[in-house]
């Protein structure tokens, strides 16, 4: 199995597609023997397919992180462990040929696209990774076991691909934090890099699930990014944490066809709600259903205390 080093001067070429552990190991071993510089690295991007420009941003960043002679590996696997009862596992969009064509232009060298029986050869795994308290709040509260399923497959794919660096999108902020904590707490030898959320011109965060939205639902979904921007702007004006929450909540409450699962202003390192007196970095997170489609989004904010130490008008706590 030959996986040639990437040459930036080449025309876009189809990456090598492998579907079994043995063929993956061949591709990894070939690159390890032919990598021209010791500074070249292997970078991995883990996806569930149905790729969009947000995923391709990750791959392009991976190309830069790997170096000109490095190896960029993209995994495509719809992980059953992270889907709950009644979620869209069976209907989740799958189009490997389309995805591979997109990856050719983004600089991927190898695509690992295993089937569930390759990733879980004994069926449902007995031993899984626990996200701990990070997996019990927000997404964990609405999707019990979701982050455990994510971390279990991420750990397995890290073992299988043995990257120097792994890249994840910041749109799934709680997932990114959980992965970073797993790497830190379990002493994994890999660098985790977060990549900024890609948005459409109208502000909607790119997601494979956006394809489920009707035109009217898409217009309603814009309330999510609008609420996050308004909250961040309120923080920049010197409003406290409660006012930031209330501002974002007010916009969501006015939106039609939007049912909010949660809106939270949290510590970006722990995903714990920040207190009313909090100042400094925070993360404003939202999850909502628009029609039958569930969407998530987030925005980094910097909460600045009012200069006179008083509460800012309108700083009442959100009840959402």
Question: Care to describe what's here?
Answer:
This protein has helices at 21-34, 53-66, 96-106, 116-119, 139-142, 146-161, 173-185, 215-236, 241-254; strands at 16-18, 42-47, 71-76, 110-112, 165-169, 191-195, 258-266, 280-290, 293-303. With 320 residues, the chain is an alpha/beta fold. Helix 6 crosses helix 7 (173-185).
What is the CA–CA distance across the termini? Answer: 54 Å
Distinct helical segment count:
9
CATH topology of the largest domain: Rossmann fold
**CATH architect. name of the largest domain:** 3-Layer(aba) Sandwich
What CATH first level of the largest domain would be assigned?
Alpha Beta
- Percentage beta strand: 15-25%
The helix/strand series, from N terminus to C terminus, equals EHEHEHEHHHEHEHHEEE
Structure summary:
This protein is α/β, with parallel strands linked by helices and 320 residues long. 35% of the residues lie in helices and 18% in strands.
């Amino acid at each position: 199995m030959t996986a040639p080093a990437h040459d930036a001067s080449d025309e876009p070429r189809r990456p090598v597609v492998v579907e079994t552990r043995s063929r993956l190991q061949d591709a990894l071993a070939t690159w390890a023997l032919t990598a021209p510089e010791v500074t070249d690295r292997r970078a991995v991007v883990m996806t569930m397919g149905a790729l969009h420009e947000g995923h391709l941003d990750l791959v392009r960043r991976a190309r830069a992180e790997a170096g000109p002679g490095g190896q960029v590996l993209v995994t495509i696997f719809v992980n059953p462990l992270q889907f709950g009862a009644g979620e869209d596992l069976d209907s989740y969009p799958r189009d490997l040929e389309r995805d591979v064509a997109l990856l050719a232009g983004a600089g991927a060298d190898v695509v690992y696209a295993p089937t569930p029986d390759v990733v879980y050869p004994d069926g449902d795994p007995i031993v899984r990774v626990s996200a701990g308290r990070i997996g019990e709040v927000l997404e964990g509260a609405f999707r019990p076991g979701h982050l455990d399923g994510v971390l279990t497959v991420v750990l397995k794919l890290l073992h299988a691909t043995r990257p120097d660096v792994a890249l994840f999108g910041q749109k799934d902020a709680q997932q990114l934090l959980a992965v970073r904590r797993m790497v830190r707490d379990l002493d994994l030898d890999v660098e985790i890099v977060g990549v900024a959320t890609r948005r459409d011109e109208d502000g909607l965060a790119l997601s494979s699930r956006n394809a489920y939205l009707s035109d009217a639902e898409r217009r309603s979904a814009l309330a999510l990014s609008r609420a996050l921007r308004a909250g961040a702007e309120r923080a920049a004006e010197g409003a406290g944490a409660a006012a930031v929450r209330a501002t974002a909540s007010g916009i969501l409450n006015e939106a039609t066809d939007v049912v909010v699962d949660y809106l939270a202003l949290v510590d970006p390192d722990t995903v714990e709600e920040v207190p009313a007196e909090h100042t400094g970095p925070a993360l404003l997170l939202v999850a909502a259903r628009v029609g039958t489609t569930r969407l998530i989004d987030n925005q980094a904010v910097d909460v600045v205390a009012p200069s006179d130490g008083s509460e800012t008008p309108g700083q009442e706590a959100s009840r959402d």
